[in-house]
Amino acid sequence: MNVRRVGLQTLDALTYAIVMTALLFAVSTAVSLLLGYGLVGTKHLLFFVGFAMFGYGAFRLQPVKPWKDDERSSDDTPRGVQQFALRLVPEGYRVHSRHRLSTGTKLFVASVFVLGTSAAMEFVFGVNAV
Question: Which keywords, in A-to-Z order, does the entry hold (predicted)?
Answer without folding.
Answer: Membrane, Transmembrane, Transmembrane helix
